[in-house]
Design a protein that fits this description.
InterPro entries: AN11006-like. The protein is an alpha/beta fold. It has a domain of about 250 residues.
């Protein structure tokens, strides 16, 4: 037997000696007393309680108590729930009061006087307070705020300092550079902040008149005594307003050209045919003054030739070379006594101004020609029919005019007849030949339809003299008396072609 090992008899003796020693010398500390209590309780046998059974649910053992006697619970009585501590909040409870997190200071990393605070500073959102704090604390109105500046110095701020700071996501530094809103700025109407459609409606209310605007000198000047009451000072506001308002001024108004002067006979070209010469009047970019009301008699001045009239009155109001392509509604009026060959050429020249515009071609929507045919006493023929013959200068100019509709107003004794020609299809064909984009280029059916409609419009344009004679010789076509060029009859018949 090994010398370090103890036999079983020796072990029993050692245990019995330790037990007798503990009984003779009890310990005086608290730790020993607790150990004796635990050992005593451990030796006490458990009281006989209710029987327990073990079940296995989902791989886990659960002990359940089996009641020996039946209870009054039929399954409808729910066990009482343990009330949670008021300090603990359930993250899934929708009725708990949640506080917003404090706003993040994005400008903490920048210097104190850095301009980055204007763009990336802390959001100007005050932290949300609870209801109890809002009821107890009453808002105190402060007239001015202050902040520390340097050592012990304070800088007073105005009451609307926070309002002048840029809002997050609305302009940043650019809005501050533009300046804060002042009471004087609030009185001004922010026109440029409105949509372009609303601004165009405002321009129409200011610049568009109901009656046609009478012009002269090749559409370049307005009659001084029949000047429309149009306030054009808005054109001098800024460049953007001028560009937008000019389109409304020239595109929405109707410009009336009254034939009062005769043109010289045109020169002949190499083929021996008469060539229409468009005489452009003297133009001035920006007129310095307007016409005076006490000028000479306009009828005496109208009888002068364009060259003599331009030297006598060099100031004009409309730069036709610059703004002629913006005209949309044109009207030419020939009075009953303007039937000579010179007035025919004058009408052709007035139409040719918009036919030969450069560098931007004109795009007229509607051109209206008003005539008053009468039977001539010396020849017995009806006047103005030669103006609309197939080979006349007026018809040849109308064929090359880029417009959508041509209207001929025939004043008769009873009413006013209107002949309307649709020239849109012929204009589409001309643009396609010049190389402009055509959406129906590969559609043969549409191309054939356009050619047919354009051919019909060309035939009706060449037959204008026949249609005018038919209207004048009708039951209501007899010219009874003279009528002014500006008056309109109550009845009107329209012939669309």
């Amino acid at each position: 037997m090994a010398p370090g090992k103890k036999t079983g008899v020796a072990k029993k003796k050692q245990i019995s000696n330790a037990a007798s020693r503990s009984k003779v010398n009890p310990s005086k500390g608290k730790g020993s007393a607790s150990e004796t209590k635990t050992s005593a309780t451990a030796k006490v046998p458990k009281s006989a309680g209710s029987a327990q059974a073990t079940i296995i649910v989902g791989g886990h053992k659960h002990r359940i108590t089996v009641a020996e006697e039946d209870s009054n619970d039929d399954g409808t009585i729910r066990p009482t729930k343990r009330r949670k501590d008021s300090k603990e909040t359930d993250t899934h409870d929708y009725h708990t009061v949640r506080e917003a997190p404090p706003p993040r200071d994005y400008g903490a990393s920048f210097a104190k006087k850095s301009t980055a605070h204007l763009t990336w500073g802390a959001p100007l959102l005050s932290p949300r307070r609870s209801r109890s704090e809002a009821q107890t604390k009453k808002p105190v109105k402060k007239t001015a705020t202050s902040r520390n500046k340097g050592k012990g110095k304070e800088e007073a701020r105005p009451e609307n300092f926070l309002q002048s700071k840029p809002k997050t996501g609305h302009g940043g530094l650019s809005s501050v550079m533009a300046g804060s809103a002042t009471p004087e700025d609030e009185r001004h109407f922010p026109l440029m902040k409105l949509p372009i459609e609303i601004r165009q409606k405002i321009y129409k209310e200011i610049l568009v008149v109901e009656d046609p605007i009478r012009v002269r000198q090749g559409w370049s000047a307005v009659y001084p005594r029949n000047r429309p009451m149009v306030e054009t000072s808005i054109l001098r506001a800024c460049r953007q307003v001028r560009n937008e308002a000019v389109n409304v001024l020239y595109g929405e108004n109707t410009f009336l050209y009254l034939l009062r002067e005769t043109a010289k006979l045109p020169a002949t070209n190499t083929l021996g045919e008469n060539e229409i010469v468009v005489q452009h009047p003297l133009m001035v970019d920006e007129p310095l003054s307007e016409y005076e009301g006490n000028s000479d008699d306009e009828y005496d001045e109208d009888d002068l030739l364009p060259a003599a009239r331009s030297t006598k009155d060099p100031e004009v109001e409309i730069d036709i070379r610059r703004y002629g392509h913006k005209f949309r509604k044109l009207m030419i009026v020939a009075e009953p006594n303007r039937t000579d060959k010179g007035y025919l050429l004058s009408m052709a020249n007035a139409i040719g101004v918009f036919r030969n515009l450069k560098p931007i071609r004109s795009r007229v929507h509607t051109i209206t020609i008003e005539i008053t045919p009468i039977r001539q006493l010396d020849t017995g023929e009806i006047s103005f029919l030669d103006f609309f013959e197939k080979t006349s200068a007026v018809v040849r100019t109308l064929k090359g005019l880029p417009c959508q509709f041509i209207e001929i107003l025939v004043n008769t004794g009873g009413n006013q007849e209107r002949i309307r020609l649709n020239m849109k299809y012929a204009a589409h064909i001309r643009r396609a030949k010049r190389g402009q984009k055509d959406l129906w280029k590969n559609d043969r059916l549409m191309q054939a339809y356009r050619s047919m409609k354009a051919g019909e419009a060309q035939e009706n344009l060449e037959r204008l003299s026949v249609m005018i004679r038919k209207i004048w010789e009708g039951p209501n076509g007899r010219f009874v008396g003279s009528r002014g060029c500006d008056s309109e009859s109550d009845e009107e018949n329209i012939y669309d072609f």
